[in-house]
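retry 2 of 3: previous attempt timed out while embedding S-adenosylmethionine. Reduced batch size to 1 and resubmitted. Inputs unchanged:
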Amino acid sequence: MKFEASMFEGELHLIKEFLLSIDVQESENYKEWYAYYVKIYGKKYSNFDLFTIYSLVYLISQLFIVKFVLNQELNSNQVKITPGFLNSIPQKVKETFNFNTDIEVRFFSPIINALNDLEPEKFDHLIHYVVERVNLIDSQPEYFFDNTVQNIVHTYIRHKSGEFYTPPFIVKKMVEESYVLGEKVIDPCCGSGNFIIEIIKTILSANYTKRERIEAIKKLHGIDINPISIYLTKLNLLYLLREDFRHLNSNFVTTDFLFQNNADIKDTFDLVIGNPPWFTLRDIESLNYQKKIKKLAEELEIKPLPKNVLNIEIASLFFYKAKISLLKDNAKVFFVITMGVINGSHAARFRNFQGFHNIKLWKFAKQITDIFNIAFICIYAQKSEEDRTIPNLEVPSFLFSVNLNGKKLNYYDSVNLSLEKTEELVPYGTEIKGNKHYTNKLITKEKQQQLIPIKTSEYKKLFHKGADLNPRNLIFIKKRIRNDSLITINPDPRIFKRAKEPWVKSEFSDEIIEKDYVFKVVKSTELVKFYVFDFYNVFLPLEKENLSFEYHSLKTHAKKFYDKINKIYLNNKKDSTMNESLMDNLNRWAKLINTRQISKIKVVYNNSGSVVNSAVVQGDFLVTGDLSFYSTNNMKEAYYLTAILNSPLMTRQVQIKKSSRHIFKIPFEIPIKIYDKNNENHRKLAELAKKAHNISETSTVDLIKKNNRAISKNKIQSLLSKNLAPILNEIDEILTNDLKT
Ligand SMILES: C[S@@+](CC[C@H](N)C(=O)[O-])C[C@H]1O[C@@H](n2cnc3c(N)ncnc32)[C@H](O)[C@@H]1O
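retry 2 succeeded.
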């Protein structure tokens, strides 16, 4: 039975009304709850609505206990559910099973006491609803709260703490693979307890004496930052174990695993298993907690380069923290984790796997990963005493799929995963920066064989990102000439297609400016192989000769217009953006006002996408931040570079190495030589590129004309890939030769 959020509307409404009537938000209890939960979910979501939801979950749990633990029929003559009866349940289960959850539910249990004050009719009504829900549980009651929390607490709230529980069929497979009866186990982020539940099922089905069973059960532990998670885990275990639960109560603790340093549990576990939260440093609201995470990442020796710090994955800290604070030597860790740790540049030091050996990955076919809406893997490793020799990493990877006969996979389905293929993964390279090792993305050995050995080209330093000319709705213009010096401008309609809030409006119309302030700009959207087929006009309050910004020397109209758009910018920009003016924003990182932008010959290529396109741009064009460029005064060198950047060989290298949409500096990880006019290969490449440019230009211009300008970039590209194929093959051949020498 699936429990949709809408099913609980009636109860939620009644509880909310009741909590409002007792002014719960003014109570110490609520304030204490808020102070704790704001650390988990942030200010926006730790609100009265969430408190109401948890209060309801707690109330439901009491009736769950009556039915599934105390085995009393609800809705019968056996029990009359009164506030007094509800109040007696916690004491009863404490006495009978040592089920002590006073700490975990301290925020919610007072609500049950307060129900005494609810009018009897409303109380009966509420209980009636809840009993109905509990009576609907038809199978696997141990997943009822998992199901309920996932449906009743909104996804965007759960994202704040990574509360996306693991489907039982994956948990089962992981437990089968890693758990050996009698081992000491901990799930450091146990949620509603799915992993421990599965291990308990394994223990219960083993051929054990009572004593052996209890010994095995006593060795199970769990941690979660959310008290409700620990409460629900304990409750599920109580349901499965009844009497035997009494040995477990104190093994489950509410705490922040990353910052706990309990000496009693250090280095004592045989297996750490679980699904740590999948959020990144960027998602954390508290600056103080962000700082603590950065410090911990450094202590664990996995902190990425500064440019990737905001992408630190919290789950990757769990992996290394488990090693230093939980695992015995040679003990096992097995986590569900995002695919990012295998291919993201933010996880380059994670992939050093320092202090681990026997690393294995499980990957899953799309029908399975779709359950989480995010690509995930399972990662297994064992703690090792010795440090690894970093470049020798080899990681077997197992791909699982499931035969569903065309049906969609459901979270609670019990399915058999079948092994589709096994591959050996290796990093495509390792780097040392500032004394620290960084292990590049893991790729298959097969792909590794297609790679040209990594060597940084000297051109890497010479190419620079263009200027992020934003917000586009304020400066990208269409112009009409008024007289020799003045023009009328309106926003360029083309830029609204991809505009994002709050920069989606047309903010001016028929403004007048002096024509000296219009600059021609190229963007990646019009870049195809060897050619840029269109450009944009942009208003910039800069001097044409040197791009300097002298506000007081601006001509009258331009000054007035700049004041206008600057005001709009300041009114709409994010509070966290430090810029004091529109001009500050346009010249971020000094990418606009520099001599490179003035040069008359530029080689450009796209910073993102799956194919590298490059062209020589000649004349007074500025370059936007979605392109990188190099300024030269040597046309031959410029063509030579476009030959290399446009080559199929280059795109293949980039595709293997890149870990997101971004390309940025990857092209320069192959040893592209500085252009040498005495090198025959270089001259030939330059000539071929010039020819290719002519083909591209004629084919594109022709196609655009034929279609009256109504032609998509995709169509142009597919025509070009046909027309340029022979030249590109020739380029690949010469380039391969040149790179070898
Ligand atoms: C992805 S859920 C996994 C739940 C569980 N492994 C399962 O599959 O049922 C992650 C859990 O981590 C918990 N969590 C988040 N941050 C934590 C932290 N710093 N320490 C301990 N637990 C944390 C969340 O409350 C959530 O229950």
